[in-house]
Amino acid sequence: MSNFYARNAWWLFTGAVFMFGSSFGQTYFIALFAGGIREEFGLSNGQWGGLYTVATLASAICLIRYGRLADTMTVTRLATLVLVLYAVAATTMALAPNVVVLCIAIFGLRFCGQGMMTHISMTAMARWFRANRAKAIAVAVLGFPVSEALWPPVGVVVLDDIGWRATWLVIAAMLLAIFLPALTLLTRKGRTPQGEGNDEEAPGMLGRQWTRGEVVRHWTFWVVLAGLLAPPFIGTCVFFHQVHIAAVRDYDLSVMALAFTIYAGASVTSSLVCGPIVDRVGPTRVLPFLLLPLSVAIAILAIPGGVVIWFLMVAGIGVSHGLVITLLGAIWPTLYGTRWIGSIKAVATSAMVMSTAAGPGITGAIIDLGIPFPNQALVLSAYCLAVSALYVTAAPRITAMVEAPPRPVPA
User: Where are its TM segments located (predicted)?
Assistant: First the structure.
């Protein structure tokens, strides 16, 4: 196993850098600026959540269309294009004179950061690896918890020192001066899955390559997606409303930011443990257990208490995140093959982005009705348990199709 990591360190590190760079478009980071933005533009929790929802939905729609570029453009060219647009979005965020421009800036950050940077990383891992795909993804996604551990504490300090607008100018400069040249260099070295069967594209269920149209018409996609949408929806809601949670529970926001280090450690540990297990037993057999950690974690938030409640919940979400993101990268190529994986993953990623768009808007509106987010936690926990029960029935059927010999697509 150690030889695998040593031999493939270049490509694994490349995937991790993409994930690390996605941080500036992730909810947990943008949410740090909620207080200053809401105060300057006079937005309520519901209005801020609604604006965020509109911007994120727009990014999800664009991801469906432009995510397929991962099938037709080289990683280097696509990464360069995305990073330049990413820096433009950060600059626009810093200079936004009104709510309309602010919404456009958030759209750009969400599309380039949460959307395309993550999409490029996971698509590359799916193509570059086969037999050890989940282990590769488990390492690549380490860039995400590292960014979660680093940027919230740093962001709070910089934000307090120079203000939210100047902070986004610094981010734009980092994207152009550090991430662009680094990823341009790293992505010039491609890889084929040699020593993992052969160099041919790996097939999916029933021994065939599925097109995007076939995938969205088949029941397996929607059943699997029902569970995979829960973690981004719930995680986004929690981190987006962290300022609100701090106010409701009388927590210190700077103390809450320290929990992201625990989150990162839990996510890293969960991902590294999960990767080899998924490779050994297959991603479909893990589905019934996928949402159980998240169900427990979000239920903890409903318990009244001190800031330790926040730390326990964030740690539980970290465990869930490590499991989900490792499975997420492995399950789509396992089910549908790698030939059209960029196009297929664009739809799946877009749906997940839409879930993160819906979360802040829905929960923000409920908060405006007088129901604090911690009071909404048990409903979210119950959804996770319901989908887990669905997976107990569906997972064996899906596994049977993955292991079945080639035949035509079932109705």
Answer: 49-67, 95-113, 134-154, 166-186, 219-241, 253-274, 286-303, 309-332, 344-367, 373-392
